[in-house]
Design brief:
Oligomer: single chain
Number of strands: 14
Structural class: mainly beta
Shape: globular
Largest sheet: 11 strands, antiparallel
Strand order of the largest sheet: 1-2-3-4-6-7-10-11-12-13-14
Distance between the termini: 10 Å
Low-confidence stretches: 1-5
Helix content: under 10%
Number of helices: 3
Strand content: over 45%
Radius of gyration: 18 Å
Mean pLDDT: 88
Amino acid sequence: RVQAPVPGPLLIHWDLKGLRLLMGELALNLRLEGAQYRLEGNGFWGLWGKGVADVNGDGLAALLEQVMNQYDISAQGAIKVNEISAKLSGQRVVSAGGDISWSGGQVAVRSGSSPQNIDFPGVKGELAAVEGNLILAVTETRTNKPLGELSLLPEQGLAGVKVLKRVLSLAGFGGEGDEDKTLLSLQQPLPF
């Protein structure tokens, strides 16, 4: 569990959708704004499922600094969230869409006592529902070639990460062999 302090003032605005409550669904519009980010969208929970819709926003990659520091990584650049939606029925993801992108920029990886700076190109993640799971397929924005994926498997209670060898080439660490081969594949139980 990661708890990150929020730099600067935080504005939270929410609006409960009363008519939808009468139809058996708790629905609200939520907007969060801070010094380094802005996020707005709708959430719902009711008789026919639960999920989020029309989630949009932007922020600085530095907002994720506390999480990235655990892995000795820091990044610059901007993150954009565009039209994210996901709906669950029971423990199955029945629909999902939208994208999350990072502008690219300087990434510092600490190895030993000194950081190594890498200029990394922009990336884009496309969200989709695949066989009851939530998949964020990540590609490099210049060539649209795959870099890996993040997955949420609610029926199995797992989250996963898959990274392709192409990421090493983009980071300047050589590119021998098939770049579409898996470099890293991890699954871990969900914390909830």
